[in-house]
Automatic annotation (TrEMBL):
This is Indole-3-glycerol phosphate synthase. Residues 3-250 form the Indole-3-glycerol phosphate synthase domain. The gene is trpC. One of its GO terms (molecular function) is indole-3-glycerol-phosphate synthase activity. Pathway: Amino-acid biosynthesis; L-tryptophan biosynthesis; L-tryptophan from chorismate: step 4/5. The keyword Cell wall biogenesis/degradation does not apply. Its EC number is 4.1.1.48. The lineage of its organism: Bacteria, Bacillati, Bacillota, Clostridia, Lachnospirales. NCBIfam families: PRK00278.2-4.
C-alpha cells in the first residue's frame, strides 16, 4: 500500500535530516522560535464554512501537478480568500519541502498546516521552527500510543493537530484521543477512489463540539453543496485550487454557494 512506501521513505529522510541537524539542536531551535501565533483551530471554528487551501506539486494519485502560478502568486490568492493554508512538506511522493512552508509563513498571516506523514517527534519540533501552526496526524499510520504522545507533544508546542481518519474504527480512536479537530479523508488510500459518502457516514460520530474537516476530492459545485448539507466546519482543498486559473474567485464562489 502507498502509505507503507511513503512511511518507509520518510524514515530514510528523517535519518538523513537528523545527521545534519541533531535532535537536541532541533528542540533548541523550536524553543527559540518566536512566531506570531496563528490559531488553526479558531480559523476553522468560526461561524460559517472555512476553507483550507492547499499547496502541492505532486501526489501519488495525480502524479506531477502542473503549476498554474508561482508560489508567491498562490499565497496572494489564498491570503485574499481562504481561512488557512495547507502545505505539503513530504519530498518523495508529493515533491514538497519545508522551504515552501517557510516561504508561505513569510508572506501570510493565515494559520498554516504542515501536511506531512508525522511519525517521529523530531518532525514536530521542526514544524515549530518553520512556522507551522498545525500538523497532521494520520490515524492509519499511527497506533494509539503514538497518536496520544504526538497529540500531546503538538499541543505542548502550541501546535494544533488535525487528526485524519478514513473509517469508523479510526474515528473511534480519534474520539478516544479527544482530538478537537477531526478530518475525514474522502480518498481511499488503497485505490485512490473518492467517495464523499465517507464524510456523510462519519459526520454523525463526531459531536458538534468537534471542528470537523472534509478532506480530498472536493472539485465541483455539487461536491461543495453536498458537503455543506453534512454540516462540516471546513473543507481541505488541493487539486481543485491547484488546477484553477483563479483560486481566489473559486474559493469565494464556493463560500457563497
Ligand atoms: O492525494 C493523494 O494522492 C494522496 C495519496 C496518499 C496519501 C495522501 C494523499 N493525499 C493527501 C491529501 O490529504 C490531499 O492532498 C488533500 O486532502 C487534498 O486533496 P485534493 O483536494 O483531492 O487534492
Amino acid at each position: 500500500m502507498i502509505l507503507d512506501d511513503i512511511v518507509a521513505d520518510k524514515k530514510i529522510r528523517l535519518a538523513e535530516q537528523k545527521a545534519k541537524t541533531g535532535e537536541d539542536e532541533m528542540k533548541r531551535l523550536a524553543a527559540a522560535y518566536r512566531g506570531n501565533g496563528h490559531s488553526f483551530y479558531e480559523a476553522l471554528k468560526k461561524p460559517g464554512l472555512s476553507i483550507i487551501g492547499e499547496f502541492k506539486k505532486a501526489s501519488p494519485s495525480l502524479g506531477d501537478i502542473p503549476q498554474k502560478m508561482d508560489l508567491m502568486e498562490r499565497i496572494k490568492e489564498y491570503n485574499a480568500s481562504v481561512d488557512a493554508i495547507s502545505c505539503l512538506t513530504e519530498e518523495d511522493h508529493f515533491h514538497g519541502n519545508v522551504g515552501y512552508l517557510k516561504e508561505i509563513r513569510g508572506k501570510s498571516e493565515l494559520p498554516i498546516l504542515r501536511k506531512d506523514f508525522m511519525i517521529d517527534e523530531y518532525q514536530f519540533y521542526e514544524a515549530k521552527t518553520i512556522g507551522a501552526d498545525a500538523v497532521l496526524l494520520i490515524a492509519a499510520i499511527l497506533d494509539d500510543a503514538q497518536m496520544k504522545g504526538f497529540y500531546k507533544l503538538a499541543r505542548s508546542l502550541g501546535l494544533d493537530a488535525l487528526v485524519e481518519v478514513h473509517d469508523e474504527e479510526e474515528m473511534e480512536r480519534a474520539l478516544k484521543l479527544d482530538a478537537r479537530i477531526i478530518g475525514v479523508n474522502n480518498r481511499n488510500l488503497r485505490d485512490f477512489t473518492i467517495s464523499l459518502d465517507n464524510t456523510k457516514r462519519l459526520r454523525g460520530m463526531a459531536g458538534a463540539d468537534k471542528v470537523f474537516v472534509a478532506e480530498s476530492g472536493i472539485v465541483t459545485d455539487d461536491d461543495v453543496l453536498t458537503l455543506k448539507e453534512y454540516q462540516v466546519d471546513a473543507f481541505l482543498i488541493g487539486r481543485a485550487f491547484m488546477e484553477a486559473d483563479n483560486p481566489k474567485e473559486l474559493a469565494k464562489h464556493w463560500k457563497a454557494l
